[in-house]
Specification:
Chain B: It is a lipid-anchor. Chain B: It is found in: Cell outer membrane. The structure holds two protein chains of two kinds. By secondary structure, chain A is mainly β. Chain A is built from three helices and 31 strands. Chain A has two domains: 162 residues, Rossmann fold; 264 residues, TolB, C-terminal domain (Neuraminidase, 6 Propeller). In chain A, the strands form seven sheets. In chain A, strands 1-2-7-6-5-3-4 form a seven-stranded mixed β-sheet, with helices on one face. Chain A has a four-stranded antiparallel β-sheet with strand order 10-9-8-31, with no helix packed on it. Helices cover 50% and strands 13% of the residues of chain B. The longest helix of chain B has 21 residues. Chain B starts with a helix and ends in a 5-residue tail after the last strand. Classes of the chains: A mainly beta, B alpha+beta. Chains A and B meet through strand 10 of A and helix 1, helix 2, helix 6 and strand 3 of B.
């Protein structure tokens, strides 16, 4: 945040409607205020400058009559820690024990353990069964409150509240939108490599709350999230005819996308969620890119070559499409107008490039690169310049962007394991983490920020 | 999400999933696709699927990133074509496969390219192209699992499957 702003006087209520999948998730956010010292300095982490020293932050257990307050603090701390931008301080080092989260803390006690930021809070059960969660973010060196908010929610949504609080802290301290209140759809894998069972699964971005969306009977691949609705598109081998489907997450309703004469693969939504772009595998062995408008049901062909054109991904403004093609020999990355006009190659490095994905910020294209016996995840500018490899290994594949365009998730299969699992890496390439899933996992796709 | 979760958690639906899964396994076991699986080379009834698999050879292999029908594969496909013309009642599906050293979507397209090349070769040998369906499994169904060329070379294959949609 560029400006901190003066603390609000009096309890100013702000209602935020939640356009969510579940009315139970509906929350009321209120700004809390306490008397604070005047602002002196501005606590801000500049994350645009490459390597960032993580900010020490103290996240105290939220007051509650049970374990819930500790659990919520734990989820917030884990989110912030995994971002690589924050270093939560061991609770054992805390001097002040917060007993009244409505009062200003003893800033000296927090400064002496070098906590630049401090999070306090409380969670209480309401008469109607809902939870009320309140938190405050403090700038210890300026001696002032930065944020104070409260939320009402159903008890089972406690993790979601924690992610929303972590997003609020991330945004306040970095100036960028967070990505913690998001989910990831992916492919859960079990069984031997020869007869692997694959199910669509969805989880919170931190690996919690896994649910299964298909039963494993049919081979399913490459799920992708709608940017605008609780909807995914994916490929299924159902009925021995591999095609692209849409799945409504709220209702479980499914439908086929188009009725093409051959296999369709590699689906992805347009930024407005109204189209699906995909590849049709044709009789002559070529693969060409088509879009289908989900409202009018009309299909449009974007490429017409004898090559393999696949892996299409729209620019966030919807005017361009990046894709992979082996029209020049090995697979390389090309971009063209959203109507198929003016295709031009943008990747020229050694090896082959595939799975291009345009960043939600519009500035970068993430890809899988195969060279020298390794598979890497990298990013390049949208004209193909400035290539940076963020992660390399025996088999790193299939990047997907966090909605703020600062973190990528992908899947990694270490040599000799046949055991893919999900990883995240940030744009510095220094903060690489595994996401714990119940089984093997691949093909992740990140949701937009939930509203 | 909630409604869908409730559906998925209902015991009735879980039971249905399980019965489908069991049925799926059972049908697979009836479709061996290599002589090694069968262990009865030479003794198959002429004109049976076992005869085709064991005595003709149901699969061909490809070079890295290639869908060119190699010399050894041409011999196999010529034998396949003769057999398929003699027994014209079998529906035919050519499955294309890729090794795992590629990305998933490209490998699906590459498998299709291999299946199409195989179908075209069989057609050139007199098998009506309209009799041959194709499907690609990309790198989803390896037959050999290890991190070296000895396995990858076996997985870059096209299999001619008799009697309907692939494995």
């Amino acid at each position: 945040m560029m400006t901190i702003g003066q603390p609000k006087e009096g309890p100013e209520l702000m209602l935020r409607t939640t356009r969510t999948i579940l009315s139970a998730f509906a929350m009321i956010i209120a700004l809390l205020a306490v008397a604070t010292l005047p602002a002196r300095a501005q606590l801000k982490l500049d994350i645009t400058k490459g390597v960032v020293e993580p900010m020490p932050i103290a996240i105290t257990d939220f007051l509650s009559g049970d374990q819930l307050g500790t659990n919520i603090s734990g989820v917030i701390a884990a989110d912030l820690e995994r971002s690589g931008l924050f270093a939560p301080i061991e609770k054992g080092a805390f001097i002040e024990k917060i007993s009244n989260p409505d009062a200003a803390p003893r800033f000296e006690d927090w400064k002496v353990i070098n906590a630049q930021a401090l999070v306090t809070g409380r969670v209480t059960k309401q008469g109607d069964g809902r939870l009320k969660a309140e938190f405050r973010l403090w700038d210890t060196f300026a001696g002032k409150q930065l944020i104070g908010q409260q939320f009402f929610t159903s008890p089972e949504s406690w993790r979601r509240v924690a992610h929303i609080i972590a997003d609020a802290i991330y945004k306040e301290l970095t100036g960028e939108d967070g990505y913690f209140d998001t989910r990831v759809v992916y492919v859960d894998e079990s069984g031997t490599k020869e007869k692997r069972v694959k199910r669509l699964a969805i989880m919170d971005q931190d690996g919690a709350n896994t649910r299964y969306l298909t039963n494993g009977k049919d081979l399913v691949l490459t799920p992708r999230f709608s940017p605008s609705r609780q909807e995914i598109t994916y490929m299924s081998f159902e009925g021995g005819k591999p095609q692209i489907y849409l799945l409504q997450l709220e209702t479980g309703q499914r439908e086929l996308v188009g009725n093409f004469p051959g296999m369709t693969i590699a689906p992805r939504f347009s930024p407005d969620g109204q189209k699906v772009v995909m590849s049709l595998l044709q009789e002559d062995g070529s693969a060409n890119i088509y879009t289908m408008d989900l409202r009018s049901r009309t299909t449009t062909r974007l490429t017409s070559t004898s090559a393999i054109d696949t892996g299409a991904s729209y620019s966030p403004d919807g005017t361009q499409v990046v894709f992979e093609s082996d029209r020049g020999g090995r697979p390389q990355i090309y971009k063209m107008g959203a109507d198929g006009s003016n295709p031009q190659r943008i990747s020229f490095g050694d090896g082959s490039y595939s799975t291009p994905v345009w960043s939600p910020r519009g500035d970068l294209i993430a890809f899988t690169k195969q060279a020298g016996g390794e598979f890497s995840i990298g990013v390049m500018k949208t004209d193909g310049s400035g290539e940076r490899i963020l992660s390399s290994g025996y088999h790193d594949e299939g990047p997907t962007w966090a909605p703020n365009g600062r973190v990528l998730m992908f899947f990694r299969q270490p040599p000799g394991s046949n055991s893919p699992h999900l990883m995240t890496v940030d744009l510095t390439g220094r903060n690489i983490r595994q996401i714990q899933t119940p089984n093997l996992s691949s093909d992740p796709a990140w949701s937009p920020l939930l509203e | 999400m909630r409604r869908f979760e409730m559906i998925a958690r209902s015991p009735l639906v879980v039971a249905l999933f399980m019965s489908l899964a069991i049925a799926g396994c059972a049908s697979k076991k009836n479709m061996p696709n290599s002589a090694g699986d069968l262990g009865l080379a030479g003794s198959a009834t002429p004109g049976s699927t076992q005869d085709f698999t064991v005595n003709v050879g149901d699969r061909i292999f490809f070079d890295v990133d290639s869908s060119v029908i190699r010399g050894d594969a041409q011999q196999t496909l010529s034998k396949q074509a003769q057999w398929l013309k003699r027994y014209p009642n079998y529906a035919i599906t050519v499955e294309g496969h890729a090794d795992e050293r590629g990305t998933r979507e490209y490998n699906l397209a590459l498998g299709q390219r291999r299946a199409a090349a195989t179908r075209n070769y069989l057609a050139s040998q007199g098998v009506p192209a309209g009799r041959i369906k194709t499907i690609s499994y990309g790198n989803e169904r390896p037959v050999a699992v290890c991190d070296s060329e000895s396995c990858w070379s076996q997985n870059r294959r096209a299999i001619t499957v008799l009697g309907g949609a692939g494995s």
